[in-house]
Amino acid sequence: MACSLSFSSSVSSFTTTTKTATATSATSNSTASPMPIQCNLRELRDRIGSVKNTQKITEAMKLVAAAKVRRAQEAVVNGRPFSETLVEVLYNLNEQLQTEDVDIPLTKNRPVKKIALVVVTGDRGLCGGFNNYILKKAEQRISDLKKLGVQYTIISVGKKGNSYFGRRPHIPVDRYLEGTNLPTAKDAQAVADDVFSLFVSEEVDKVELLYTKFVSLVKANPVIHTLLPLSPKGEICDINGNCVDAAEDELFRLTTKEGKLTVERETVRQATPDFSPILEFEQDPVQILDALLPLYLNSQILRALQESLASELAARMTAMSNATDNASDLKKSLSMVYNRKRQAKITGEILEIVAGADALT
């Protein structure tokens, strides 16, 4: 009881001082202190143990996310040779067909009356605001389309997006697709088949891809790219019509610098050499282009899925790192309170012994 009274009195004086300082300087909060912790020693020990266990879990999740970021990078690198060769062939085929009137369904521009939005989200939480950012981007795009009087439909990829749009029946959804831990060409083909059928059947006049572009471990940009109609030269265009040559790409490497995980980016420009002038096509170049463009569509969707996965893992890694740091700070503050209480208890017991000895004498 003496220990409890001693601790409570110190807390009361601390609280009074804080209130007085707050009243005199309302605009200054640099010395703001947390609320006092009212627990006995056993409860404090249990809470410190719980925080330590939570810190171990978040640290393990951070390391797992870091390893998966590395795997996502390797998936992007391994898919580059196919994508680069495909862009090279498309570029040179287009050079051969510049003087011809090519009629390819996937490159046909029509007046836009309805748009399909492919929204790529994550399958899990604990990744900060990753899913919220891309969903807000989708809501903003939907609002813009409504103001323009353009109809729209959603193709949701990822459990978080499926759950979000499933709770909003006023948003038309064409299809729900599940994401995977490591996107493959088969997963991209499921999305490509759906958008291909919608565009070719003229149910929609344009297809836009919304995903999160990986920038760094602490930054990811939600972007909107025009997926269909495709450009015959193998270009990726945003909603404003600004095109980027797909032969220019960025690689990221997960490294350590001064004991901390960092990401290094490298811009690589893939050369697109001209075909030999004596080279002849066994088939009509138009048929070849018609067969290659669906492959190119598939590769672009796969690339978006991989970028989105890398962004999700980086966001989870950052979130778990922050959670680990917060757990460490909380453990320190709890340990300090525990030590003070234990010291106050020991001091109280010593005072009781001294008082008893004085009474006997």
What report would you give on this structure?
This protein is an alpha/beta fold. The protein is built from six helices and nine strands; from the N terminus they run ααβαβαβαββββββα. The chain has helices spanning 2-24, 41-96, 130-148, 159-166, 185-200, 285-360, and strands at residues 114-120, 151-157, 173-177, 206-216, 219-228, 235-238, 243-245, 248-257, 260-269. A seven-stranded mixed beta sheet has the order 3-2-1-4-5-6-7, with helices on both faces. The chain has a two-stranded antiparallel sheet with strand order 8-9. β2 (151-157), α4 (159-166) and β3 form a beta-alpha-beta unit. α2 runs antiparallel to α6 (285-360). The longest helix has 76 residues, at 285-360. Residues 1-32 and 245-249 have low confidence and may be disordered.
Low-confidence stretches: 1-32, 245-249
Helix content: 40-55%
Q: Order of strands across the biggest sheet?
A: 3-2-1-4-5-6-7
What order do the SSEs take from the amino end to the carboxyl end, as H and E?
Answer: HHEHEHEHEEEEEEH
Radius of gyration: 30 Å
Largest sheet: 7 strands, mixed
How many strand segments? 9
Give average pLDDT, whole number: 76
Strand content bin: 15-25%
Structural class: alpha/beta
Distance between the termini: 25 Å
Globally, the shape reads elongated
What is the count of DSSP helices, taking H or I runs of 4+ residues?
6
